[in-house]
Amino acid sequence: MGVQTPQRKMSPSQMYGVPMYEKPHTLKNYALDHFRSPLPSPKSSMNGTMMRGGSIGLSSMWRHNRGPIAQPLLRRLLNKEELAHQACVIFQGILRYMGDLPGRQTRLGLELTDLIFGGPLKQEILRDEVYCQIMKQLTDNPNQGSEEQGWQLMWLATGLFNCSQILLKDLTHFLVTRRHPIAADCMKKLKKTCQQGQRKSPPHRVEVEAIQHQTTQIFHKVYFPDETNEAFSVKSSSRAVDLCEAIANRLHMKSAEGFSLFLKMGERVVSMPPADFFFDFIRNINDRIRKGKVLPDGTNASPAYQVFFMRKLWSSTVPGKDRKADIIFHFHQELPKLLRGYHQCSKEEAAILGALIYRANHAESRADITSVIKSILPSDLVKIQSNYEWKKDIVRAYNKDSGMSPDEAKVAFLKVIYRWPTYGSAFFEVNQVSDSSFPENILVAINKQGVSIIHLQSKELLASIPFSHIMHWVSGPTYFTLTVGDSASFSKLMMETSLAYK
After folding, report:
1. Does residue 479 or residue 95 have the better pLDDT?
2. Which residues, including other chains, have CB under 8 Å from residue 491's CB and lie 6 or more apart?
3. Contact criterion met (CB below 8 Å) for 311 and 333
4. What is the dihedral of CA 249, 251, 256, 261, to 10 degrees?
5. What is the pTM of this model?
6. Which of 32, 256, 296, 469 is 20 to 30 A from 357 via CA?
7. Backbone dihedral region of 357: left (phi > 0), alpha (psi from -120 to 50 degrees) or beta?
8. How far, in Å, CA of 127 to CA of 118, rounded?
9. Residue 130 CB neighbour total at 10 angstroms
């Protein structure tokens, strides 16, 4: 076996073929071919100083200045009236963000970054314009505070979208010849954006506040069903699937397959699609909720939210296969369903499960069984006998498993309910108003077999509908409707529930 020689790390300048001490790159040459001609002023026309090339007029186009522009920088936007106007508005936003143009203090947050980046995310032609405007304002900027704010915008931009191939060489050259601490990170973000694709929404508040506090690392808290949480690094380019993989690796799980991130706002919980950018999804949900609320003028307050990581798909879940997942997730996700009385469970099974739950959650505190009876037995079975009788049955089952650890009890609990057809189901208590053969109040269970209609009290299976028999479904805020059958014969099952959005 040969000895590997460690590779020498290269600086960003060397990586992109730029001499180590080359002077900072500007858009001077790029402007000659792609910028519009400078607007003549009476003073410059009289003095005859407006010349093509290195004139005073053209140099003002690619160097920092504190005044608004009346036309876009790029020549190709001149004949597009609406986009040209938008480019001028964006530049005014950049001036305000950087402090070069006085403005209301409340406009220094999301309002300005939305103004600057919203258009380019929708119109590709504006992306080069924004990058040129930011590079212009970072060139020969005499004000250190203004320059710092400009680099914040560059850091945000490189995490959102790429520029055209025509501009990419100049943008890369600009970044790698700058000695500002953020420049190298901007280059990394730009490269990542080229690989991962562009974002759909302007920066989230967390991203803006992070760079305003001069940190390029963002850690986001993620909550787990066992009531623990950990902070994970999230980048502008992070998608939901990336964070899921990072969590599974940190927790030493076998796989992240079947797991999902969930966003919780108030009582509403929404699953995050794997391919969505993490901050885009949160921003999108935030914006939807904000539109439904009346906020004071100029307020950018975002609704409070929590990010959870939980199992979503149970089709391949076998207790004991992934011990970490069983202990942290599966046990704690399945336990509430049992306690709410959603499963069909015998008295004997309830005593066995009650003993396992007690060992998992209460054995170390040595709490009296009768004092925690409602937290270890299905709610529909608690009243079928006295607490004293339940305690005798549970103690008997508990003693049979002497020496079992709390974590072993969690896996044993899962192995018992795994035998039931409703294991891993998502349950919904609904009112149905369309089929007279079913009670008005029913329990709907959705799992890998399909949709099960269950009697709410007896837990008797009333009907089982395979997914292949569901022709169509539609949902609203408080209802969902299933169309069942085929083109020759079908029926509709209409159900009302506050959880219809799930």
Report:
1. 95
2. 434, 435, 483, 484, 485
3. yes
4. -110
5. 0.85
6. 256
7. alpha
8. 10
9. 25
Cβ(342)–Cβ(426) below 8 Å: no
Residue type, position 32, single letter? L
For the chain, state the CA radius of gyration: 31
State which H helix or E strand residue 92 sits in.
Answer: helix 81-98
Per-residue pLDDT, 57: 67
Take residue 360 and report the two structure tokens written for it. Answer: 């998992």
109: closest CA among 307, 296, 306, 302?
302
Whether pLDDT at 12 is above 50: no
Q: How far apart are the first and last CA of the chain?
A: 56
What are the E-state strand segments in 166-305? 219-223, 229-233, 259-265, 268-271
pLDDT in tens, 341-378: 999 999 999 999 999 999 999 987 788 999 999 999 99
**C-alpha distances out from residue 176 to 139, 182, 236, 303, Å:** 14, 11, 20, 39
Tokens of 249: 């690796």
Closest Cα partner for 342 from 450, 430, 467?
430
Question: Using CA atoms, how far apart are residues 351 and 385, in angstroms rounded to an integer?
Answer: 12
Q: What does the pLDDT read at residue 502?
A: 52
Between CA 91 and CA 85 the distance in angstroms is: 10
Instruction: Round to whole Å and give the CA distance between 30 and 39.
Output: 18
- Structure-token pair, residue 311: 């199992």
What is the C-alpha to C-alpha distance for residues 33 and 74, in angstroms, rounded to an integer?
10
CB 261 within 8 A of CB 272: yes
pLDDT tens for 246-304 read 999 999 999 999 999 999 988 888 999 999 999 999 999 888 877 765 444 444 556 68
Provide the 10 A C-beta neighbour count for residue 218: 20
The one-letter amino acid at 137:
Q
State the pairing for strand pair 219-223/306-311.
parallel
CA 342 – CA 337 distance, rounded (Å):
6
CA distances from 231 to 156, 265, 309 (A): 22, 19, 12
Pair of tokens at residue 440:
């008005």
Backbone angles phi, psi at 338, to 5 degrees: -65, -45
Q: How far apart are CA 450 and CA 471, in angstroms?
A: 13
Separation between Cα atoms, residue 492 and residue 404, nearest integer Å: 49
C-alpha distances in angstroms, 353 versus 328, 345, 356, 410?
18, 10, 5, 10
In what helix (H) or strand (E) does residue 491 lie, and over which residues does it extend? strand 490-496
